[in-house]
Design goal:
Structural class: alpha/beta
Helix content: 25-40%
CATH class of the largest domain: Alpha Beta
Number of helices: 9
Subcellular location: Membrane
Membrane topology: Single-pass type II membrane protein
CATH superfamily of the largest domain: Spore Coat Polysaccharide Biosynthesis Protein SpsA, Chain A
Radius of gyration: 22 Å
Keywords: Glycosyltransferase, Membrane, Signal-anchor, Transferase, Transmembrane, Transmembrane helix
Strand order of the largest sheet: 1-9-7-8-5-2-3-4
Oligomer: single chain
Number of domains: 2
Strand content: 15-25%
Protein name: N-acetyllactosaminide alpha-1,3-galactosyltransferase-like
Transmembrane segments: 6-23, 101-123
Length: 342
Amino acid sequence: MRYKILILLLLVLMSLCALYREYHFSMMKLQMTYQCWSLENQPNHSYQQTDFYRYGMNSAHMRMRTTNWSAPTVLTDTYNESALKKYYKKYYKKYYKKHPIAVGLVVFAVGRYLGYYLGNFLISANTFFMVDQRVIIYVMLDDFSYMPLISLNRLRTYKISKVKRERRWQDISMMHMKIISEHIADHIQHEVGYVFCMDMDQIFKGSYGLETLGESVAQLHTYWYKESPNKVPYERKEASEAHIPLGQGGVYYHAAVFGGTATQVLKITTKCAQRIMNDKKNNIEAVWHEESHLNKYFFLHKPTKILSPEFCWDLRKDKTPDIEAVKLSWNSKHYEFLREEV
C-alpha cells in the first residue's frame, strides 16, 4: 500500500513538472516567442518596400509618399494590406499560427481624463486596433477604481499599472516619457515586439493595422503637416534641449501617436525623458512639452515610417483631398475642465 502511495505521488509530481515546463515562461522566453522582428533581425530574405507601399505623386496638397531619407509616408491608398499579411505569414509562419504579431498599446489615464475619455478609447481600440494580432493594452492610471469594465476580443489583454498623479497637467504630459521608458525596460520589451504610445483623448474610426508597423513610427500633425519649417511650433529657445534652430527641421510630428519596435521606442522615450529632466533642472519648459522633445528626437534620428494625418485627424477641421479615410480621430477637448490643477 505504501509503495502504491509513493508511486501515485511520483506520478503527480511528474505531471506537475510537465505542466510547469509547458506553461511557465520566463521573461526571456516571452521575448523570444512574441518578438516582432525588426529590419535588423528579420530572417535573411530579400524584399522591396514597393511590395507593400505604392510610390509616386499624390494629390497637389500632399505630394510626398516617401521622404528624402526614403521612409514611406502611409496614406490610405499607399499600402497593400493583403501583401503585408502575406509577408508576415510567409516569413513568420513557424510562429504566426500560434502567436500572431504582438503589439503593445500604451495609454495614460490620470485625473479627470480617466473618467472622461478612457472607456471610449478602449472600446474603439478593441474594435479597430491591430485586428487578429496579439495585443496587450498597457493602461497606466492613478486610480484603479475608475478602470472601465470592458471585455476584450480574442488575443487581447490588459496590463494595468498605477502611476503618480502630478499636480500640473504640464508635468503629467512631460512625465509620460520617463514612465513609458521605465516600463518598457522593465517588462514591455520582453512581452511585445512593437509598441504604440497614444493619448487617450482619441477614438479609433477605422482599421489600424500592420501598415503602421515599423522600426520608428511618427505621426504627421493635423494642423502643421502642410506648413514650412519656419512656421511650425518647434521649440525656439536656445537654452532648451528641445531647441530646433529657425530655418532647420522639416516635418512637425504629433506626440499623440508614436511607436515602433520596443527597442526603438525605448530609445525614443529614454532620450526624450533625459532631455525633459535636464530642462527641468534648469527651470526650462519646452513650448509644447513632450511633443517638442519628440520633434527634436525625430529631427536628429529620422523615423523609418511616417503616418499621414488620416491616422490622427481632428474632425473639427475640414477634410482636404489628402484625407480619404480617418483611422483615428481627436475626441472633443474640454481643457478648461480637464486640466484643472490639483
